[in-house]
Amino acid sequence: MKQALVVRGGWDGHQPIETTDIFIPFLEQNGFKVRIENSPAIYADAEFMACVDLIQQTNTMNTIEKEEFAGLQAAIVNGTGFGGWHGGIVDSYRNSSDYLQMLGGQFASHPGKLPEERIDGQSDNFVPFTVNMTDLGKAHPITSDLSDFDLVTEQYWILHDDYNDVLATTTQKVRSGDPWSREITSPAIWTRNWGKGKIFVTTCGHNLEVVLDKNVRTVIERGLLWASR
User: Fold this and answer.
1) For residue 117, what is the DSSP state?
2) Which of 128, 85, 115 is nearest to 103 (CA)?
3) What's the domain range around 21?
4) Are the beta carbons of 37 and 20 closer than 8 angstroms?
5) Local mean pLDDT, 10-residue blocks, the chain (229 residues)
6) Over the range 78-89, which residues count as b (16 or more CB within 10 Å of their CB) and which as e?
7) Cα 165 to Cα 123: distance, rounded to the nearest angstrom
8) Can you give the pLDDT at residue 111?
9) SS (H, E, C) 151-181
10) CA dihedral over 156, 64, 43, 12, signed as positive or negative
11) What is the reported pLDDT for 114?
């Protein structure tokens, strides 16, 4: 059997247990033995990490120790796949610039509703937006038969570089009162090769409702299988 490692935790608002529980049976059905850990401490276990084919991480607003990151990166460089969604992967370890470089993208913001529309809850950050497939995405096995799709949830503004293979994007509009004066396009789905390993990221997946969206769930399932060793 292949070995999958699910590392979950961090901010409860992203429902790390509930969202990862959706995909564990899927991984098992696809031939993975799944181990669950509640912190990145396992990354420092070199003996175990050498046997891991896929890491699925959902660990928002947490930190990583130097030896933990070193173990994570070594595994990926040697062929372990790494994948995840939303803040569980792009807002995980701001204390490590090396992690941000390896991943290729960092959460910057999710501009939400206008002040007069806010009700002081998570939904203040939920806005309607479109995920647009790129030409690469239209030909990639993760997204090849998917069309552009709409969501109402957090729209991530991502700091990123051009080493990413971007499969889909999303564009922040210019609105009255916002400090930016032109539209900003961020990657919404991307892959990245790091050593022998493959990395898969989607910024969609704020909570259980979003990962259950048929398009988002399809992207995540395909992305995890694609990234695996």
Assistant:
1) G
2) 85
3) 2-227
4) no
5) 98 98 98 98 98 98 98 98 98 97 97 90 95 98 97 98 98 90 97 98 98 98 98
6) eebbbbbbbbbb
7) 31
8) 93
9) EEECCCEEEECCCCEEEEEEEECCCCCCCCC
10) negative
11) 87
Q: Which two tokens stand for residue 23?
A: 């995909």
CATH number, domain with residue 218: 3.40.50.880
The residue behind tokens 């003996």 is 47
Burial of residue 112 (number of CB atoms within 10 Å: 0-12, 13-18, 19+): middle
**Of 128, 96, 85, 82, residue with least CA distance to 219:** 85
**Number of Cα atoms under 13 Å in the Cβ half of residue 88:** 35
What whole-number distance in Å separates Cα of residue 226 and Cα of residue 229? 8
Q: Which pLDDT value is given to residue 177?
A: 83
Query: Is the distance from CB of 158 to CB of 105 less than 8 angstroms?
Result: yes
- Spatial contact of 107 and 158, defined as CB atoms under 8 Å apart: yes
Q: What is the pLDDT of residue 186?
A: 98
Strand (E) positions, 41-196?
54-60, 81-85, 105-109, 127-133, 149-153, 157-160, 165-172, 184-194
What pLDDT is stored for residue 115 in this prediction?
87
What per-residue confidence (pLDDT) applies to 176? 83
Task: Count Cβ neighbours within 10 Å for each residue of 146-182 and write b for 16 or more, e otherwise.
Answer: beebebebbbbbbebeeebbbbbbbebeeeeeeeeee
| Whole-number Cα distances in Å, 62 to 8, 92, 134 | 10, 5, 31
Number of domains in the chain: 1
Residue type, 218: T
